[in-house]
Amino acid sequence: xxxxxxxxxxxxxxxxxxxxxxxxxxxxxxxxxxxxxxxxxxxxxxxxxxxxxxxxxxxxxxxxxxxxxxxxxxxxxxxxxxxxxxxxxxxxxxxxxxxxxxxxxxxxxxxxxxxxxxxxxxxxxxxxxxxxxxxxxxxxxxxxxxxxxxxxxxxxxxxxxxxxxxxxxxxxxxxxxxxxxxxxxxxxxxxxxxxxxxxxxxxxxxxxxxxxxxxxxxxxxxxxxxxxxxxxxxxxxxxxxxxxxxxxxxxxxxxxxxxxxxxxxxxxxxxxxxxxxxxxxxxxxxxxxxxxxxxxxxxxxxxxxxxxxxxxxxxxxxxxxxxxxxxxxxxxxxxxxxxxxxxxxxxxxxxxxxxxxxxxxxxxxxxxxxxxxxxxxxxxxxxxxxxxxxxxxxxxxxxxxxxxxxxxxxxxxxxxxxxxxxxxxxxxxxxxxxxxxxxxxxxxxxxxxxxxxxxxxxxxxxxxxxxxxxxxxxxxxxxxxxxxxxxxxxxxxxxxxxxxxxxxxxxxxxxxxxxxxxxxxxxxxxxxxxxxxxxxxxxxxxxxxxxxxxxxxxxxx
Length: 557
Prior knowledge:
There is one protein chain. By secondary structure, the chain is of the alpha/beta class. It has helices at 30-35, 37-43, 78-90, 109-114, 175-191, 224-227, 233-243, 261-268, 282-289, 303-317, 335-338, 347-359, 389-400, 406-416, 453-458, 463-476, 478-482, and strands at residues 11-14, 47-50, 54-55, 67-71, 94-99, 128-129, 149-152, 157-160, 195-198, 251-255, 277-279, 324-325, 364-368, 484-488, 495-502, 505-512, 518-521, 530-534, 544-547, 552-556. It has three domains: 11-103 and 175-380 and 422-469, Glycosidases (TIM Barrel); 109-160, Oligo-1,6-glucosidase, Domain 2 (Oligo-1,6-glucosidase, domain 2), CATH 3.90.400; 484-556, Sandwich (Immunoglobulin-like), CATH 2.60.40.1180. 50% of the residues are buried.
């Protein structure tokens, strides 16, 4: 297997709006990130993926870009961004930019031009269609609820927006659009960024016949089969690689919801000529596949299904393509609340256990801000506390249409809303968790007095220091990065265990995903092995053992 710096890295995701506010306006900013670079260096991460920081009306918190070459004013200036790159690089930390090129904001100059008339030179930068029988061109629903089409009175046509109506989709069939995107990417690579995380990149190619989608339990048809992994997506990414990516030593990761093993190998195969790795979401979307209204369910995740999915991606990409390892991000609930147990009795043990399971696998691990502290869901119980467009629009759509009872929908939001991941980073136990001197744009999780960075930095047994140790092990031991993966206890209801092998070296990772004890036998080849890390200070690792609730350890030989 080829060795690459991005395979050996640990990535930390920053959601800039909620990370650290340096000027007291209640919104995180670039200078706030610079202030915390030493904290990130101490943690041991060496790549930062920062969610979008470009000019935007903030309809979807920056994933609606109105100018690809300007920094969003509330985050700072281009000088601040250049200083961030310089300060991060000085600490040997690389910076990934969030590339959002499936759509722009409807306030982008291209769209303002495109809207003016049917023969405007920019008309074809977006996807415009005539009404069909006086209505939308087809029955597709958008990702945030409602129709995926918006009518424009001026030219009496509809434009496509797979997300909010303020996020019109770019027309990648138009070669000019692609060249504009590649020029913009070169602009940032020449500034010194170290790569791109590519937002919904698997959606850039649409089936040009735009057929109706299948209608499930909701009000609209599913665009998935016609817009996700569309007919020309690999052709476009190969072109992007030839024109831009191959010319720089950068890291690329594509967000590819609904990706299969076969597709992942096309996107991120060792020699595919497209991307370095992709995010698959099967392990975080499994419960919603079976729920009537997708992610809006109170069902707990199914451990056995989760384990099976994780093992599948490890085994089937092995030697063929590279995995991204994550449990949380800006679009997912907090991982300890979802896959662990955020009850104070088990929060620390389960947060450490989840980290152990993930960081010892093959792939590049991603730490979402606050995950290294075991930050939890916020469980807002009033709609007015939510800020996320998806949560608010779906609440309205599903309760107004009578499809869902308001009390139940509130429970769904408490468990599944994206705002759970977006509450301010908990730096200390002072007011507003040390995030801002002002009024934060979204409420702070009230548990910041117990869960914060300052207290964890002072405690050698904290989740922070446990993460630090896991990251150090990955840097010291090639087997963690490059070793082959072999699962154990495939059918067990509580235990996730696996062996990694590289030459003569062996690594055994054992995790109990439950609040009940679990029995197991340590494989014979690990007698006299050394314990590299353990979350509950176990001393004996031989023969039959009983794992405590949420126990985890790693043995090395």
